[in-house]
Amino acid sequence: MNAQLPDPFDPCRLGPVKLRNRVIKAATSEGRSPDGLVTDDLIAFHRTFAEGGVGMTTVAYCCVSPEAASAPGQIVMSQAALPGLRRLTDAVHTAGAAVSAQLGHAGVVAPKKLTGVTPLAPSRFINPASMAYCRAITRDEIARVIEQFAAAARLAVDAGFDAVELHFGHLYLPSSFLSPLLNRRKDEYGGHIDNRSRLVREIAQRVRDAIGEQIAVIAKLDMDDGLPGSIWLDEALRTAQLLDADQTLDAIELTEGSSVYKPMYLFRGDVPVKEFAKVMPRPMRLPLRVIGKSAMGSYPYEDLYMLPDARQFVGVLGNTKMILLGGITTRAHLEAGVREGFDFFAMGRALLREPDLVNRMTADPAVQSRCNHNNKCMVTVFERTHCVLDPEQRFGAAEPLDPAAARLPLQQIG
């Protein structure tokens, strides 16, 4: 690499936190907390990434309240969760990595069947993915949600986290306020993009006020949610500029897509229609098989596929670091991102496939990821998020093979 540019595997700082390198395990909702609490399974999941060499791993998805959940098996940030969260952060730190808690409120994506309450939106809305009615959030409820984010961040500090990631993407509640399609409010939270950016700015400010400089504060922000007439680059740049001017964030992770419309816009690659149909209620299975590819969207996978849009943010932010996401699988991709002006790099599916990929890339610059972007891992969010090509994660650890049996002809085994 050019000697004037930082090496992505050298130690660096993210706000008040020192990281051993610039690679972050991206948030991938894990489904390993059936009672809203940390499990040994979840601890082992994140310890694996820490042992595999990432600078920081992200615990996802941490609900700021019980009604904020987006899927089963998610952590609820509560005092009851604190002892388990401390065990988790201790385990990650012992393995040499930092750890972040992704804090979110699912809003229009929160299923009533799971939370027991009608989903919240900036304005009345019908979620096209679930056909669920979402009611308009009141001003008192907005204030309550802001305080819930602050309380969750304070809990993260108490639990020993090194950072919090505020989920401002994918048309979850904060993100839906940024969308002119979902946000038709007539008060100070609606209308011009400066008004629609008010909620994310207030959340970030309240979180910073609540925790000071004790840990890093990151926001995950949509550049383009893939929904016509919704969030796109022009206004996303303005939101990022406003957040940057507030100086409440240490970094922004740039993302795309939504959980409301054509979710493959975020993931790119194969569309796992058959796998999704299997986990849907029976009446939805046949329609999904018929129109699933159209409903989910079909977008070819490309390396660094978010870079063309993320590049627009370079030079716009003066106070806030930038985290590049999307199609990062090799050391060459990291080095290309550094040359483009990005500070950190978030990896998801490639690390699900190979948790030790960072260690291997550090040792050998020519290492290639084995992730083939089949996207069947998307469906595992409804159970335990994992790569379906990882036998230990999918089936459990195998019994040791009897060496004598291993030498038998195949037709004599089992």
Written account of the structure:
Pfam families: Oxidored_FMN. Residues 9-230 form the NADH:flavin oxidoreductase/NADH oxidase N-terminal domain. This is NADH:flavin oxidoreductase. This protein has 414 residues and is of the alpha/beta class. It has a single domain (12-106, 138-261, 299-395), classed as Aldolase class I (TIM Barrel), CATH 3.20.20. It is 36% helix and 16% strand. It has 17 helices and 14 strands. The chain has helices spanning 40-51, 82-94, 112-115, 139-158, 173-178, 193-196, 198-211, 233-246, 264-267, 273-279, 282-296, 307-310, 331-340, 349-353, 357-363, 391-395, 403-406; strands at 12-14, 17-19, 23-25, 56-63, 75-76, 98-104, 120-121, 125-127, 132-136, 163-168, 216-224, 251-256, 321-325, 344-347. The strands form three sheets. An eight-stranded parallel β-barrel has the order 3-4-6-10-11-12-13-14, surrounded by six helices. Strands 7-9-8 form a three-stranded mixed beta sheet. Strands 1-2 form a two-stranded antiparallel ribbon. α13 (331-340) links the parallel β13 and β14 (344-347). The longest helix is centred in the middle third of the chain and has 20 residues, at 139-158. It is globular and about 55 Å long. The termini are far apart. Residues 398-414 have low confidence and may be disordered.
